[in-house]
Specification:
Chain lengths: ~325, ~200
């Protein structure tokens, strides 16, 4: 999986270095207008897809672009913003690294007159970004949680694997999940640990949870990478089919795993829709529009065995 | 002279301190809007705004055929949602005969066409009521948490106030008048599993 992600990233970087022909030009300079795409990490296929989709739409709209990988590092993200401001980019499509730590970067861009459109993850400020197009993680987790309760018939012990503790999505998903599951006293959470949205870490964490609590019947994972790691741990423990697994994202391997009956359900996000909306907004801004809603939730859809045939990985639209 | 200066100093200090610190009841602060209370917001919406909006809900028996014959028009004219994506909500009302009372649902045959729908009586979750009846203007809220909490509070009111009297009395063959909201996926619409989250349920004698 990591190798695939690296290959995709390398291809993207090669493409981006070549990007820039046939572009919209600035009003005074005749230079092509450039849009920066700053993404929290390109070491995760989901975010690679987000960046790729944003780049496709920006190119289609006729702007030059460049992608910046923050590598989940707010300091590196700040450097990217400084470079983008200095290099005269006209707009920024932004997937923040940290809900609080990224606010200053967005404010700096705003002060420099550069609009910022957040994608997927929000920043904790309502007056900094031009607009934020955000996955409705809370509501998506509510839908997953209902299936969780139904699948367990309202009773049983379970564990929860959290994502990065500094990311708002981690807590939106957990809070949405518990807003439903906690109504059922028969469902008992025996362990709740962070695995940082990481597949390998999730496997290790669940292995240790299973040693202490071999009788759990389900695991709710805050993303699909962790759900796949959890599945590996469950198989290694000889409990495949006995422990129900739930994820969040709509990653390719989890969509396949749901079809194969290995994972019960996930919340399908739509990075393509978010990226395209952000790119279109940036284009509209550069053409004079200023009345953008601050936050736009993007619905998350429940995917389970009975409807998995409707979905492609990452909620992508089928090719025409 | 010195005692007078000290006295004046003490009086001034006391005055400054007195006007620097004050105590208010938390519910007064909430009432003034200094802190947002999802529960107060939901209650106010439930009592003062929802009744008028509920009376303007769509007849479910008319909406379902329209969704079958002209889905795009039905979604374009009547579907509501705070955000973008495929999930949409409709405010609906109607009357039906109870076909079965189950642990998590009450199954109805709606009048006059006898189509099957379910009234949710267990899983009162999601944003159908909040968005279907337009309880929130997105631009009025800076915090996603506040918006999510409003849904949870509206759903709580349904669980605690709408459902208990209905569940106590409802039985097979009874006629029920309902108002509520339904969720549909615009891309993958399934009219065989319509589930109404009820805001009003009245059993007819």
């Amino acid at each position: 999986m990591k190798t695939t992600a690296r290959k995709i990233t390398a291809c993207l970087i090669a493409l981006f270095l070549l990007a820039g022909s046939g572009c919209q030009t600035g009003p005074d300079t005749g230079e092509p207008q450039k849009i920066a795409i700053i993404v929290s990490t390109l070491n995760n296929p989901w975010f690679v897809f987000l960046a790729e989709q944003a780049a496709d739409k920006v190119r289609e709209l006729g702007y030059a672009y460049r992608i910046f990988d923050s590598q989940n590092n707010t300091a590196l993200e700040s450097d990217h913003f400084e470079n983008v401001i200095a290099a005269g980019f006209s707009a920024i499509l932004f997937n923040p690294t940290d809900a609080d730590g990224s606010v200053i970067n967005v404010r700096n861009a705003r002060t420099a007159g550069i609009p910022v459109f957040c994608m997927d993850r929000e920043i904790n400020a309502a007056d900094a970004a031009t607009a934020q197009i955000l996955s409705d993680s809370y509501s998506g987790s509510v839908a997953v949680a209902r299936t969780f309760v139904e699948s367990l018939n309202k009773t049983g012990k379970y564990a929860e694997l959290l994502g990065l503790v500094g990311d708002n999505n981690t807590w939106s998903r957990s809070k949405g999940f518990h807003s439903v599951v906690d109504q059922y006293p028969g469902l008992k959470m025996v362990a709740q640990q962070s695995a940082d949205f990481d597949r390998n870490k999730a496997m290790e964490v669940l292995e240790s949870i299973l040693q202490a609590h071999p009788d759990i019947e389900a695991v709710f994972c805050g993303n699909d990478a962790m759900a796949m790691g959890a599945y590996q741990a469950v198989v290694a423990a000889g409990k495949a089919g006995k422990i129900q697994l739930f994820g969040f994202d709509g990653a390719a391997d989890v969509v396949d795993a749901i079809a194969a009956g290995k994972i019960v359900a996930t919340g399908m996000q739509f990075p393509q829709l978010m990226a395209h909306t952000a790119a279109v907004f940036a284009g509209e801004y550069l053409n004079g529009r200023r009345d953008f809603p601050q936050k736009i939730p993007v619905s998350v859809e429940l995917v389970k065995k009975s409807n998995v045939m409707n979905y492609l990985a990452y909620g992508a639209e089928p090719e025409p | 002279m010195k005692p007078v200066r000290y006295l004046l100093g003490c009086v001034l200090t006391a005055l400054v301190l007195y006007h620097s610190v004050y105590f208010r009841k938390l519910d007064e602060v909430v009432k003034d809007g200094a802190l947002f209370s999802a529960s107060a917001y939901a209650r106010d919406f439930w009592e003062n705004t929802l009744p008028a909006r509920a009376s303007g809900a769509l007849e479910l028996s008319a909406l379902l055929p329209l969704l079958e014959t002209d889905k795009d028009s039905a979604f374009g004219a009547y579907a509501r949602s705070l955000g973008i994506g495929n999930i949409r909500y409709f405010p609906v009302k109607g009357e039906g005969v109870i076909a079965a009372v189950e642990e998590d649902y009450t199954r109805l045959r709606i009048l006059p066409n006898g189509r099957p729908v379910t009234i949710a009586t267990e899983y009162i979750v999601g944003n159908a009521v909040r968005d279907g009846f337009q309880a929130v203007n997105l631009q009025d809220f800076a915090s996603s948490t506040d918006i999510n909490d409003i849904s949870a509070e509206l759903n709580r009111i349904i669980r605690e106030e709408v459902l208990p009297p209905f569940r106590q009395k409802a039985g097979k063959g009874d006629t029920v008048s309902f108002t509520g909201a339904i969720e549909l996926n615009r891309a993958y619409m399934d009219l065989q599993t319509i589930e109404v989250l009820p805001v009003q349920l009245t059993l007819k004698p």
